Structure formats: C-alpha cells, structure tokens
Hints:
Blueprint: E1 2-9, E2 14-21, E3 33-39, H1 58-62, E4 70-74, H2 82-86, E5 91-92, E6 101-102, H3 105-123, E7 126-136, H4 138-149, E8 154-160, H5 168-176, E9 185-191, H6 201-216, E10 222-227, H7 234-238, H8 241-249
Parallel strand pairs: 3-4, 3-7, 7-8, 8-9, 9-10
Antiparallel strand pairs: 1-2, 2-4, 5-6
Helix pairs in contact: 5-6
Amino acid sequence: xxxxxxxxxxxxxxxxxxxxxxxxxxxxxxxxxxxxxxxxxxxxxxxxxxxxxxxxxxxxxxxxxxxxxxxxxxxxxxxxxxxxxxxxxxxxxxxxxxxxxxxxxxxxxxxxxxxxxxxxxxxxxxxxxxxxxxxxxxxxxxxxxxxxxxxxxxxxxxxxxxxxxxxxxxxxxxxxxxxxxxxxxxxxxxxxxxxxxxxxxxxxxxxxxxxxxxxxxxxxxxxxxxxxxxxxxxxxxxxxxxxxxxxxxx
Length: 250
C-alpha cells in the first residue's frame, strides 16, 4: 500500500512530496516496523511517477518478499539544479559550466531527522530506533553523509552508484573523523559503465573504491559490489533492489 502527502521543509522553506510504502498486512495487524528513508522518492515505486518512465519497482519486490519494512520516499527537488544543492552539504564546482552547486545538504538532512522522522514515527507504527537510509547517485552521497553525522539514527545504509566525486575530499575527511561504531550494515555498489556529463566510468569506480577503503577500516558489516556493465539509471538500480534489501534487512 502506498500513501503520499506533502510537507513543508522548514529548514529550506520548501514544499515536498512524501511517498510512504506500507508493508503487506500493515492494516490487519498492530505490529511495528523498521523504517527506510530513501531519496528521489518519485523514482522508487511506480513507473508512471518516475522521471524517466522506469522506477526502482520496490513494491514489486517487497510485496512478494517476507521483508517487512516501511519505506519513506522523499521526492527530489525538480527545480533547476536544486537536487544537487540539497544532496551535498558542501559547495562544489565539479561541473564548471553549471556554476557553484551544493551546500544545502546539512539543512536537508536536518529536515529528515528533526521534522520528517518525528512525523513518520507519530503517524505510523514504526520502530523508531530501527531507522535506515538509502539512495542512488547523489542520493547515495547524502546517505553516506547522514550515516556520518547521525550514525545513532541511521544504522543501516545503502549507497548505490554514489557520486562521491562531487565532494570527494570533504566526504573522505568526514568519514575518517566520524565514529561509525553504531552502524550495523553498510551496502555500496558501483557500475563499470556509469557516466554523468564529464564524469567517466573510471572516475566513478575509483571514487567508490577510495571511499570503500576508508569505510573498510571502520565498519564490521560492509558490502561493496562492482557491477559489470551497469549504467547510471533507475533500470539498472531496479535489478539490484533484491540484493540491497536482503543485505540490509535479512
């Protein structure tokens, strides 16, 4: 079952659509469930809502699975380059033709922790201490950031096809200086044929390898997949949904 509603993001003074997947049997029981927060919510559940006509198809997997989790999808900002602004806490000039991007990620993450999570926990039967986060590309970037800043809240992370190159040095330094002992599981992957503008497949892979090397020294349960031939889109991420959810929640 899928519900949706709009919220006002106080930290950024913007409105945003929230989509909530409720596991099968939710209405027929009084059970409480863990919660997974995901970015780019419009691309997660239904093809007709997805930006490019193909979604992750998360209900297709979860409805047939014995994994029971509430998935909260937060739509991305569709205005200009605001998605990139919200998904990194640091400014970046990695795309020189696009100007300075990023810088709003701290406020965006604070919105999830201080505004959205309390709303979800009060509106649905959640297990507040069992909270996870996942995202792809810049959504993976901000998920990794959130794990470092709020490791006591987001204890299981999936960082898919992450755009770590957006602020590589800043993120690496943050990870090195963060206490991640409360992180229970961390999934990350990268395809060998991912491209974004001037960012080559080689840079994508090398970028993730560098982050993995640092995380490997700090985490007990870390999985890193290099997916041969995989490109950078929802159709590719859809094929990895099963592996991601099984790793995080089984």
